[in-house]
Amino acid sequence: MGKRKTQRNNAAMLDSDDDNSSVSSSSTMRSAGMSVSGTEEVELNKDSLLDEAVDNLYEKRGSTREKALASIIEAFNSNLQHEFVEKKFATLLHRCLNSIKKGSSKEISLASHTIGLLALTIGPGDKAREILEESITPVSQAFKSGYESSKIASLLECLAIISFVGGIEPEETEKSMQIMWQLVHPKLGSNVITVKPSAVVITAVVSAWSFLLTTMDRWSLSPKLWLESITYLSSLLDKDDRSVRIAAGEALEVIFEMGSLEKFATEAEGSNNGSVSEGNKSKEGLLHIQGLRAKILNQVRDLSVEAGGKGSAKKDLNYQRSLFKDVLEFLEDGYCPETSMKIGGESLQTSTWSQLIQLNFFRRFLGGGFTKHMQENEFLQDVFGFTPKRNLVGGEHVSNNLKRMYKSPNSVINKARTQHLNKQRMLSERKNIGHFAVNVGDEDS
C-alpha cells in the first residue's frame, strides 16, 4: 500500500512540472518588476487596455466582441483583476450575458468563461450571488439555442463555477445540477424534443455535475433521484468513449465517498417495520442497491485492466487504468488516493476524492492561469487549505495585486461557504468512509 501511495504522489508531482516552471518564471518577473521604475505605469496601461476591451463589448461586429472577450480572459488569467472588477463588475457581467443571449457559439463560449473568471476573482459574497442569480436563466436558455459541443461545455463550466462560488443554499446548487442533468437525461413530455448528446457533452455534463456534487450534504439527497443517477452513471461505464467512462467513474466515486448507497440501504431496511407490502418493496429496494453495487464493482474491475483498442491514445488508456485501480481500492479497502503537487515551493495536497475532483476541475477551467490563482486567490487557497510562500523584498510583499486582495472586503469568506469548506476538511480526516458504501448489506448476503 505504501508503494502505491508513493507512485501516486510521484505521478502528481510529474504532472505539475509545467506548473512549476510557470511559477518560477512568474515569480522572477514579479521580483524584477519591483526594481523597474515604470511598474505603476505598466499596470495603468493594462487597466486602460481592459477598459478598452470592455468598451469593445458594445460593438456591433461579433468578431470585435470575440477579440475583446479573449483579451479579458488573458488578463484575468495573468493577474487577479480586483481593482478593475470593483469598478466594472456590473458592466462586464451584463455585457457577457448579452453575448450569451445574442452571440455566436464562439462568443458564447468566451463570454461563459469570462463570467466564470469574474466569479472566481470576486470570491463568495453578494456579488457572486448576483452573478448566479443574473446568469442562471440566460445560461439555461443558451443550452437550447444550439448543440455545438464546445459551446455547451463552456456553458456547463460557467454554471458549475458560478454555482460553486455564489450558491449559498443547497437548493441553489441542486437547481444547477438538475439543469445540467436535463441535457443528458431529459424528462420526457409532449413538448420535449430530445437530441442525442455527443460524447463531449456527456463528459462535460457529468464532470460539472460531479464537481457540484462534492459540495452537497448526502443526508439531504433524494433516494429516488440519486439511485436514478447512479444507474445512469453505471450505464456510461459501458460506453465506447473513454472520456465518458472516466467522467462517470469519477462521479460514482464521489457518490461512494459520500456514503449515499449506505444511506439508501439504511432507509430501505428501516422501512421494514411497516405493512407487508411496504416491507416487500423495501426488501426489493435493498436487493436492487446491493445488485447495483456488485455490478459497478465488476465494471470498475474490468476497466482497471482493460486492454488497448477502441481508438484511444495510450495516455488516456493508462489514465483510465490508474483511475479505476484507485476506485477499486477505494471500494474494496476504503483507501482514498493522496496527491501532491508543487506550487511555488509549497505542496498542494488532496486526500479525498471530492478534493481531487475539485482540483482537476479548477485546473482545467483556469488552464495556464491556475498557478497564478493558487498563489494569489484567497478563495481557492481556502478551498484547498493551501498557504503559498510569500516573496518578500525589504519586508514587503512583492505582488501589489496580492496586497490589494487582502484589503478587499470580498476576501472575507462568507459563513455558508466556510461551513462547506469545514465539511471538506472533516471529510479528509475520514478516509475510510468508503467502507460504509462497500459493506452495506454484507451481513445479510
Automatic annotation (TrEMBL):
<dbReference type="InterPro" id="IPR016024">
    <property type="entry name" value="ARM-type_fold"/>
</dbReference>
<feature type="domain" description="Interferon-related developmental regulator N-terminal">
    <location>
        <begin position="22"/>
        <end position="332"/>
    </location>
</feature>
<dbReference type="Pfam" id="PF04836">
    <property type="entry name" value="IFRD_C"/>
</dbReference>
<dbReference type="InterPro" id="IPR007701">
    <property type="entry name" value="Interferon-rel_develop_reg_N"/>
</dbReference>
<dbReference type="InterPro" id="IPR006921">
    <property type="entry name" value="Interferon-rel_develop_reg_C"/>
</dbReference>
<dbReference type="InterPro" id="IPR039777">
    <property type="entry name" value="IFRD"/>
</dbReference>
<dbReference type="Pfam" id="PF05004">
    <property type="entry name" value="IFRD"/>
</dbReference>
<feature type="domain" description="Interferon-related developmental regulator C-terminal">
    <location>
        <begin position="377"/>
        <end position="428"/>
    </location>
</feature>
<dbReference type="InterPro" id="IPR011989">
    <property type="entry name" value="ARM-like"/>
</dbReference>
<comment type="similarity">
    <text>Belongs to the IFRD family.</text>
</comment>
<feature type="region of interest" description="Disordered">
    <location>
        <begin position="1"/>
        <end position="41"/>
    </location>
</feature>
<protein>
    <recommendedName>
        <fullName>Interferon-related developmental regulator N-terminal domain-containing protein</fullName>
    </recommendedName>
</protein>
<feature type="compositionally biased region" description="Low complexity">
    <location>
        <begin position="21"/>
        <end position="37"/>
    </location>
</feature>
